[in-house]
Amino acid sequence: MIVAVETLDDPRLADSAHRTDVALKKSSGRFGDGPGIYLAESALVLQRALAAGHRPRSVLALRGRAAEQAVALVGDDVPVFTGPDELLAELTGYVLHRGLIGSLERPVLPEIGALLQGARRVVILEDVVDPTNVGAIIRSVAGIGADVVLVTPRCADPLYRRAIRVSMGTILQVPWTRTVDWASTRAALTEHGFTLAALALEPGAIDLREFAAGVAADADARVAIVLGTEGEGLTREAIDASDVVVQIPMAHGIDSLNVAATAAVAMYALA
User: Fold this and answer.
1) Which end of the chain is more exposed for a tag (fewer CB within 10 A), N or C?
2) Overall fold of domain 112-270
3) Which of 195, 197, 201 is nearest to 248 (CA)?
4) Whole-model pTM?
């Protein structure tokens, strides 16, 4: 249902009122039984969120076509707040360039073992703290065809607004969850028959092309690649937990690519 916004004092507008991603994550949510909420920006991203089964809380939309799109997506039971562009920008702190932004309940994350059962290619992000890189990697996962993303406890949240926007909403269709520690992650990968390949600048690291050729020769190969934080790369614990260390050959004195570019190259080589 469309609700006209005439004042910013309405408590139902709180989800959109200059709230940080951290504050949204800590919210109890409309239904009171989930781990906070997140924001889905644009009709496309909202559509992907709903297709994933995520429960909408409210939508903030520009007048006209955007508001109509929102109602068509969420139905009459979810409030669609709309009003003058300037008033909505004052509420959010930014212009709604994509027309609308939806507030949804965060899903409960699945267990790692449940995600690994049918997977062949897994991408693990260790402490990648920039949401832009997380979003770009997840977009590559969706586009190139990896099956699962695992993120470590210190990795940026894939449901942060910027990560979702950069991923074009594909994080809402890519299976993912958080790990607890390397011991349990390594055990789960071993149980499900995965080879863990670390992308790192280490002595003795093998060429990605050589590693990919070996994977291609085994139709049943199950591979997980792990990528590290911007700048420092992988921790020693991650490298020690891996079965093999792989690197992408570089030219002109450049030692490595950005982590998002590295992920895309590695996934394409192993697809």
Assistant:
1) N
2) Alpha/beta knot (3.40.1280)
3) 201
4) 0.91
